[in-house]
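sorry for the late reply, my laptop died twice this morning and i had to redo everyting from scratch. anyway the thing you sent over, i finally got around to it. pasting the sequence first so we're on the same page, its 386 residues, then the predicted structure underneath. double check i copied it right bc i was rushing
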Amino acid sequence: MKTINIPGICNHLTAMMFIAIGVATLLQPLAGSATRFLLIQAVLWTAIVSIYLSRFIKAEWRPERTKPFSIYLLLFLLMIMPSTLTGINPLKSTFYAILLIVFYFAFLAVREAFTSSPRGFLSPRMFVILSAWGAVALVLCRFAFRFISSSGSLLPWFSLAQEMPEQGKNLDHLADFLLVALFPVIATVGSTASSAGRRMIWRAAAAVTAAGIILSFCRSAWIAIAVEIAVLAVLDRSQRRILLAGLAACCVLVFFLPGITDRLSSIFSTAQSTNVQRLDQWAASFELIRHSPFAGYGIGSFGQLYRQLTGTTVMLPCPHNLFLHLAVECGIPALFIFLGVTVHFLRRMGRTGEDSMPDDNGFARAFRLGVFACFIGMLCFGMFDL
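ok and here's the structure:
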């Protein structure tokens, strides 16, 4: 009698739902409302977590490459639970805490699925291939939505004064984050392709991703990709010429496309409106931390606190600084836990010979290097935008 491979079925279902989440993200402006989009995302993420946790029903179904109930989960709970219990709005903080826990298990589920095979659909390389196609599709969808919403005019792509529909703005915010995260992984893994033609395709995907970041007009994303390119150029000499060529191409775009030079020159301006707003938010954050340094005020509380402190409302309820955001809402101890785990992760990514991934043509090393640069870039991005 043929036995049913329950772990294999779970991994395939997880992978397909992960792809569905990517497709839903790309088509987000067509969802009609943010509520409908969030509901679709919630159903898919919850299904992924449910499938993953169901594998603990029997010992032979249990995940082989991930251990959810570990020291990382304990540290994660230590970060979020004190502020959740003592914050100004425990119900709201509890809701966000549950969301974070769901994403923690979802991350492990996706990792388990895409490391279950050295080759094929459930391999790490396939995960990067899907990510590369997703990055290119994200840039194209972003461009298409701007093109359609502006009645066929290309100018809004370069215009800072464009009034976009809310769905387009949501896609923009998400795109900046994802493109910055994916660029270094695409750039490094592409060099391990088995033929010159495939390497050219990978480089084209990296170029499209970089172009999408530049055309986003997001200064935080510009800083992040510059740091990522610098990290890759220093750590991987084989990539240096290609990265320098890409950096030169970026410089050409910066100086020849309308509006980009003005946006670039505003990075260090103390009179630019969004810079002034960020400085006010950072000053307010330090004041809030001073009054509650240990437990914080609860996850999702910054918007309300900033409004009470200054009498003004911000479009995004965050101080545009990941570290201050964490210290305000979860406390300084949570910030130190986050920094400790981040340093540990970066050190682990910097080591060689400790990964179970197949090292075909140096894939494992390239992947670790890309993730290392990704984290450095995201930390820089988070200093000004998250």
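The CA atoms of residues 95 and 382 lie 23 Å apart.
thats about all i looked at so far, will dig more tmrw
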